Amino acid sequence: MGLLIGVAFVAGIVTAISPCVLPVLPIVFAGGATGDRRRPYAIVAGLVWSFTLFTLVATALLSALGLPDDLLRNIAIGVVLLVGLSLLWPRLGALVERPFQALGRRNPGGLGGGFLLGVSLGLLFTPCAGPVIAAVAVLAATERFSAEGVLVTLSYALGAGLVLLLFAVAAQRGMNLAALRSRAPLIRRALGGVVVAVAIVMALGLDVKLASHVPGYTKALQGLEESAATQDRIDSLLAGESHFQGSKLQDYGQAPDFRGIGQWLNSKPLTLASLRGKVVLIDFWTYSCVNCIRTLPYVKRWSETYRDAGLVVVGVHTPEFAFEHVPENVEKAVRSFGIDYPVALDSDYGTWTAWGNRYWPAEYYVDRQGHVRYAHFGEGDYGETEKVIRTLLAEQDLPEPVSGSISDRTPREALTPETYLGTDRLSSLVGSPVVEGREATYEIPKVVPQSSVAYGGRWLVGGERIVAGEDARLRLSYHARDVYLVLGKGGADGSVRVSVDGKPVKTVTVTGDRLYTLAALPGPAADHTLDLSFSPGVEAYAFTFG
What we know:
Oligomer: single chain
Helix content: 40-55%
Number of strands: 19
Number of domains: 3
Radius of gyration: 27 Å
Distance between the termini: 32 Å
Number of helices: 16
């Protein structure tokens, strides 16, 4: 936890000196340069307060009320426009700040208006937060309003606020120079004009376009975030990495039990106490995750081979996307994959949280006494994992190992990373700026860089998915052999026409919400350009690669 909080603080500092913050800086400078010496602190206090509060609360609230995802941003743009106009017209400024007199305002440039300005900046900062906001969203989804989620969000806000406070204080001191003081009214109006211009830039979405051209720092932060999350999970659950010491496995203590399971498939409800005396493999998975799908043949085969020797496999299905919360969809996937071992539907993240898990797939191995002895995250290392199973069973006359008899499809080289299409985790979009909450027209640029995606035609862009309108298209530049896409049919069945490097490959019929194979090319992984054309109503979530 401590490392993740530290990373969030550093990420806030990096965000505040990145190009993403350029539209915000004139507002900070204008706010700090006008009013008394305490005003910069009021601005930062408002920013930290609003960012922390709205990040933790607003997403759930807007979802519950069915409001557009970009409502808060639009409100913030309106507030910034109002602040700019209040700088241009002092009478309006006095009127705007009047409700905030209780905050200690003594003059038109006092604390009340500064706090209001900071509140608007806190809202505007949300789209700048990138991967750290994704981490906070996971914490919110899995742990509700836990102390960890609050501290991570607050730490990020404080990191960004510290840098912006320096800008605001510098502006305030500069404006108090004797040479500038006599011109303060003129400068105030000039800064008001700048703030109004910034509001217009935000309304046109040009700030998002600017940020999309400089994604490098967010990728670096994503690596830090993943490292922090991994270390935090291992520290809290296993207190170190799982591995053999000589020929023995370490003992990491009592395993957490199943919690918050809404439904069991292929089994009556289970507890770890009821499985005492068995070796238990707990496999966290979700049915549209290609990494999980490639792991399933091994998990199924181990269940079949070692069941009579005392192994019980329990699949814990923890959904990533909204459609994976639907029990009927999971039941259909379990039948389709031929899974006959118990599957627990962990739609409320109860068991995921109890184990401190973060990734799909994740496998935890529990011995006959109910203690955690080994953990493995992601694909690969199947032979070593089977050795763990055999060691824990500790039985004579075990069957021969089976992992080597299954073709290992784990990629051995760097491929294009998983590419999400909704704004919650959108990091590689190029071309037209995103318009959230309503259908808009997008243009595919002439050049789509490697590992980037572009929208074309009409799309409705949401948090975790995009919905096709007329002439909806996608172009993706990727490095891989196989490419997959999680699709949903919306209402009636739809279709997606697939072309690779300008050549038609296939037409995919979308009959349900799941992972679809778009292309499986011969030979090794290579650079390719994928073009997709969608029938209206088809939903697209995320690309994965093999």
